[in-house]
Amino acid sequence: MVELNVVQLEYQYVRECVTRTQNQLVSLETERLGLESSIKDRLELVAAERHRQSTLRRELESERMRLSVELKDRTAQLDRLRSRSVHTGFLLA
Q1: d(CA 47, CA 41)
Q2: Residue 45 gets which letter from DSSP?
Q3: H or E element in which residue 41 lies
């Protein structure tokens, strides 16, 4: 009888250990899934921001090129005016 009680106590102890381990495993699995979801969301945000930055960079490069062309045109126009003023006797500073 005593031996049966000891075996039952050992059985209960092992069963509680298994249950605790299963609960920890479920908890860790839930945490892992949450972390994976967070990582996925963050990667999507990073990709969206990278796309936005890339688009902005292209727009700024386009604007820079436009301004560069405009500056060259104005410089050429100024040079033509200076050249013309030299021939006519007027000096432009």
Answers
A1: 10
A2: H
A3: helix 2-88
